[in-house]
Every structure is written in C-alpha cells, then in structure tokens.
C-alpha cells in the first residue's frame, strides 16, 4: 500500500468543518479590515527565498524542498523551491506588478493569502512538512506603529470569534539591521566562552548570524540564551521610539501583551517590531499559533523600491488544533444534512428523488440513499447521517402530497407539504 509521505497528511472530511470555520472567520476579518486576497505560485526561484528569508536561517539552510528543473537543450535547468513561507513571494509580486505605482502617499497595499507551505522539519504533533498558513502583508511608504496595532487588533478579534481560549501576545523589537553591528559583536563575545556547550546548529549560527541562536529550542542552549545580552537593550533611538509608540497603541486598544526580549523570530527580514501569539491549551510543545513583524527593506533586498512592510502568518493546522472541543463538536454537527429522506418501496422511490431535488433547490442539504430498505434499517441510516430531520415517504405520502417530518432529536413527527417543510427549515 502506498501511504502519505512522512510529515504530510490528509485532512479528512470529519475535520473539514473546523478548517472551513477558521478560513471563514479569517476572510470575514480581512473583509472588515480591508485586506484583499493574493495567490502566488507554490514554487518560485530558489534565489527568492535565499535572498528574502536569508541564507543563515534554518529555513533556507536546511529545510527547503529545492530541486533543479528540467532544462532545455541549450540551457541548464534552474533551481526552484517549494515555498517555505509566503512573505517573500508576496513582496516579489508587489514589486513585479508595481502595486505601489497608483498609491497616494501614506496609502498601504493590504494583502492576505492562504495556502500550503513546505519545510523539511522533524515531524511531530503540530509540526508538518506540508502545513498551511493564512497571513497578511501591509506594504507601502508608512511604517506607522498604528498599522501594527490595528493588524494585531484584527487577530485579537479573530481569536475571540473562534473562541480560542488562553492565548498570550508576545512582543519585542529587533531593531534595524543597519545598526545591529555593535550588538552582534557584543553577542558574539558573550556566546564565545559557551561554544563547547552549544548544539551543532548554534555553533553554526555563531559563525553565520549569532542572533539566530535565540531561535534554538534545545534545552541546554536555552539555559545559555538566558545569560546573553538581548537586542532590546541595544536598540537605536528610532527603533526604541517606534516600540514605545507600538505599545501605546496596543494599550489604547486594550490589547494585553508580554514583552519577551529574547524573541527574535526565525527569519532574517524582521526589523523593529516582532510578535508571536502562543496558545496555552490543546497544543503541547508546538504552541506558537501566530508569528509576525515588520520587514522594512525586504523589498529593496529583492530589487524593489524602498518599502515598509508589516505582516503575520498563522498556522492553520495549529489554529484548528487550538479550537475548543465543544466548538469542534458544534461545527461537525452543523456539517450534517438538514433532512434525510427515507422512502418505502420502489413506488415511492421516484417520488422521493423528485422531493430531494425540490428541497435541494429550496436550499436545503438533503441526504438520501438509492437502495430500497426496510423502515428500521432506513431510520438507522438517517440517524447515522446526523441529519436533524428524517422525511418519510411511502405510498400514502405520494398520494396526499404531505410528508412525515420527524425530528430525530425529539422524536416528534408532523405531516407537512413540501412548501411547509422548506418554510419550517429556513
Ligand atoms: P516555530 O517556532 O513553531 O517553528 P516559526 O517561527 O518557524 O514557528 P513562522 O515561520 O513564523 O513560524 O510561521 C508562522 C506560523 O506558521 C507558526 O506560528 C506556526 O503556527 C505555523 N508553522 C510554522 N512551521 C510549521 C510547521 N512545520 N508545521 C505546522 N505549522 C507551522
Ligand atoms: Mg520554525
């Protein structure tokens, strides 16, 4: 038997109502806050991610699904990569389609996306090699911290609407890459005496980009990380002021947060504001549901015009896992048909098919099998479908045009015409 590839999985019908709920609420939030959808390709030139996400990140260094495309007779194939994230692609598209061209000063381009991402990580609960993200990007000339607070306010609404309990917003500022040099030297000096105690990855990070040591999840490294100087203590004046304003905007909107000076996020493009949302229930170790921040300068890195950017991505897989069990039950129940048709005898069958058609065109979800069954068997089938009502059609019903509508939760039954049924179930 051929099975799914390690780290990938099928999302089965029973779980789909939960996925749809998260997607629907997200779309509703995007509508209310003025975001428009963009869909970029699932694979791009490898260089986009190498430059955009950063060579020194775990993602580019060891997690990308990269392959050489078939060339043509006179040309070698180019290196392509399944997207590990979508911000680089969205910024590429923003540049390629000159979305900035028709904007007035201060006006932002507000985009959202949803789709699969690919990273070759060690699979575990809440961590997959194909996973799904929904995210937004705000691109333009303004880096007003009010934009950041508004995006977080939307997330706040979103988590409440989904009834996700017990979450914490973690915030930090990672400053500006241009003024990071002094801090990075200081950090190197602090790490150096501990090099032997650090994991292999961190020794590599020490060489390529010591800031990435903060991303390490190895416990022995975590202990050392606690002793290291934080970037937040060496912020340039502009970043410090920006962070103060950001916090003031969150306060003004009544959004609670915790400052975590050691949260630097795993992608090189972040500047100034970085944030994460952690869910404390139902997720175990992989409990970061949202990650985001500011990435001024990413556009320039990709050959575009000077652009300010702010965005986030949340993991759909983890968001679904974070839905409370009672909510999940309700969502699954709502996915059942409204009515299940039970017909008795071949004579009633053709009539039942027409009734199903009528009710469906009236907008109802109708379940029905084609096989003639005994009453008891057919009712078991109706219960199994989880439909709220069974509609019973025998020869008498065919002649009278009134059908027995049985409420499967209360057991009550009444005789109604088709119009009466459609009216009642509206
Ligand atoms: P983590 O620290 O959990 O590895 P990350 O910092 O790599 O997360 P981002 O790249 O910022 O995550 O992606 C944003 C969100 O996407 C994460 O908060 C998480 O919910 C989700 N996510 C990232 N990687 C995976 C994965 N391999 N499987 C499932 N969800 C993921
Ligand atoms: Mg990661």
Please explain how this structure is put together.
Helix content is 38%, strand content 21%. The chain has 426 residues and is of the alpha+beta class. The strands form three sheets. It has an eight-stranded mixed β-sheet with strand order 1-5-6-11-10-9-7-8, with helices on both faces. Strands 13-12-14-15-16 form a five-stranded mixed β-sheet, sandwiched between helices. The chain has a three-stranded antiparallel β-sheet with strand order 2-4-3. Helix 1 (16-33) packs antiparallel against helix 5, helix 1 packs across helix 12 (325-334) and helix 5 runs parallel beside helix 9 (237-252). The model has no long low-confidence stretch (mean pLDDT 94). The structure holds adenosine-5'-triphosphate and magnesium ion. Adenosine-5'-triphosphate is lined by residues 85, 119, 121, 126-128, 131, 133, 265-266, 286, 288-291, 313-315, 317-318.
* Average of the residue pLDDT scores: 94
Count up the domains: 2
The CATH class of the largest domain is identified as Alpha Beta
Strand content: 15-25%
Strand tally: 16
Work out the radius of gyration: 27 Å
Alpha plus pi helix count = 16
Specify the CATH architecture of the largest domain: 2-Layer Sandwich
| Helix fraction by DSSP (H/I, runs of at least 4) | 25-40%
Low-pLDDT runs: none
Distance between the termini: 46 Å
CATH topology of the largest domain, which one? BirA Bifunctional Protein, domain 2
Sheet with most strands: strand arrangement:
1-5-6-11-10-9-7-8
In one word, what is the shape?
A: elongated
Structural class: alpha+beta
Bound molecules: adenosine-5'-triphosphate, magnesium ion
Largest sheet: 8 strands, mixed
